[in-house]
Design a protein that fits this description.
By secondary structure, this protein is mainly alpha-helical. The protein has one domain. 86% of the residues lie in helices and 0% in strands. It has two helices and no strands. α1 runs parallel beside α2. It is rod-shaped and about 145 Å long. The termini are far apart. 2% of the residues are buried.
């Protein structure tokens, strides 16, 4: 569209339609310059949005790779932790079994010591 052929009113309408600020006292050349500046700005914004979208996609990909790098060792660490917890539970169970056996043996030892004392008393009484 050739803005130089448009009237001031038409240029003002275009400014209003595009929400571009202007003064009603501006000349035709000032309105054209303002619209051209906004055209350039719109092109720059479009380019920047495209670049931003590309960077977002790139960062999304990098984030996915990083998450994958983090999750894999984390999953392996969780598996090892569960294995270690299982071993710890087995170890604690065996300790409890040993302690139970120790108390049983201590009870038997007391009983044997008591019987030995009784035999000692019996032997002394026979001598």
């Amino acid at each position: 569209m050739n803005r130089k052929e448009e009237s001031v009113k038409k240029l003002q309408e275009e400014c209003k339609k595009r929400s571009i600020g202007f003064m009603t006292s501006w000349t035709k050349m000032a309105l054209i310059k303002r619209l051209e500046d906004e055209d350039e700005r719109d092109v720059e914004i479009k380019e920047l949005r495209g670049m931003l979208k590309q960077k977002e996609e790139s960062h999304k990909h990098q984030i996915q790779l990083t998450e994958k790098k983090i999750k894999e060792p984390l999953t392996q660490a969780q598996i090892r932790l569960k294995e270690q917890q299982g071993l710890l539970e087995d170890y604690n169970r065996k300790i409890q079994e040993i302690m139970d056996e120790k108390f049983t043996l201590m009870g038997k030892r007391k009983k044997v010591l008591h019987e030995v004392e009784q035999l000692d008393i019996l032997i002394k009484s026979l001598i």
